[in-house]
Amino acid sequence: MLVTFNSNIAGELMMFAEVARRLLTVAGKECTARGVILAEQVPDIIIRLRTAAAADKAEHGPDDEEDPNVVGLGRRAQPFIEFLELTAREKDGFVLWEAARDF
Which domain holds residue 59? Predict the structure, then answer.
């Protein structure tokens, strides 16, 4: 299943539900079929994502370059972090997500 994130500032970002669940859980959001992230929530969410990515790297080491199937949280989180940063540049920025069902 795919989850689509739409930002009124940054456009659209799609990811598999498994990855979205991991990122939204770290962000402190429920993995419902629809949700919202407001611009004022973004700084805290970015800190949470970066902290979790650093902890994942410390625990599991960097991504395994010999096995492209091993992708750490940092690599998964980076596009989402950039998407959130773009959205937060405007005070009325927001991100909506939508999926076929709760994930």
Answer: 2-99
Angle of CA points 87, 21, 101, to nearest 5°: 95
Edge-first strand listing for the sheet containing 34-38: 11-16, 2-7, 94-99, 34-38
Instruction: Quote the CA–CA distance of 48 and 27 in Å, as a whole number.
Output: 6
Beta strands in the chain (DSSP E): 2-7, 11-16, 34-38, 94-99
Count how many domains the chain has: 1
Whole-structure pTM value? 0.87
**pLDDT truncated to tens, each residue of the chain (103 aa)?**
999 999 999 999 999 999 999 999 999 999 999 999 998 999 999 999 999 999 988 877 666 555 567 788 888 999 999 999 999 998 899 999 999 999 9
β-partners of residue 14 are 4
